[in-house]
What does this fold into?
Amino acid sequence: MFNHKGGVGKTTTAVNLGACLAGTPGKRVLLIDLDPQANATRAVLKKDPTEGQPTVRNLFASGKTESSLTKLAVATSVRGMDIVPSDLRLSEAEFQIASRRGREHVLREALQTITAQYDYIIIDCPPSLGLLSLNGLVAAEYVVIPCETQYLSIRGIRQVIEIIQCVRETFNPQIQILGVFPTKYFILSKANIEALQYLRANAKVRVFDAVLPRDVRAEEAPSHGVPVVAYAPDSRAARAFGLLTSEVLRLCGD
It folds into this structure.
C-alpha cells in the first residue's frame, strides 16, 4: 500500500484487505507496518507495543536479517493474520540506515527468510518518500494506491506512478501497479462524483471497480482493535473491501 499523501485510507485498506485474505480457509497473512505512526498496529492490536517489545524498528536498527521478521511477528485480533508492529521510534531507524550500504534492500532481504510461512504479505508504507517507503516498494511485487476521491489527492497520482516507475527501473524490475483504489467516496457529494469520473477517465493505470464509501463504521472499528470487515461485516465499507479483495486475487492470478 503506497501513497505519499496522508489521510487517503491507506492503512484502513491494508488492514481490511489483509483480514479478507486471512478469511480464506488455510491462508496466512502477514501485515508489515512501516509507518512510524503505527496506525495499522493499533488497528489490529488495540494498543501500542509494550515497553521493550521488538518492532519493525529492530529490523532496520540492527542490520541483521536472519529470521528477524519471524521473531518480530505477533498474532492479531484476526485469525490467520500476524503483524510486524511499528512504533514512533521507527523514524530514528530511518536515519540510522541512511548511510548503510544496501539500505534500500533491508526489508527485501529479511522477507526472503519468512515468505514460505505466509500466503500473502501486505506492506503498509508511510505517507512519505523516505527510505522506509523505498524499502517497501523494493520488496513488493504489486502496489495498490489508495486515493481519496478529491481533486488534490487525484492530482498527486501522477507523481506516485512516476516514483514507482523509478523504483522499477532502478531497484525492482518485478514491481507492478495493481491499481488505484478510490476511497472516502460520498455519493451525495458532487465533488466526489466528479473526482471519481475524472479519475476513471484520466488515470494512466487501472482503477479498481471497488470504491470505498465514507462509513462511520470504518471510523469506529480501529478503536475496537479489529478491522471493519470483522467489526461490521454488513457495512458498506466491509462490502467494498470484499469486492476489492476479489479484484486483487483475480489480478494477481490466484
In short: The chain has one domain: 10-249. The beta strands are 29-33, 74-75, 81-84, 120-124, 142-148, 176-183. The mean pLDDT is 92.
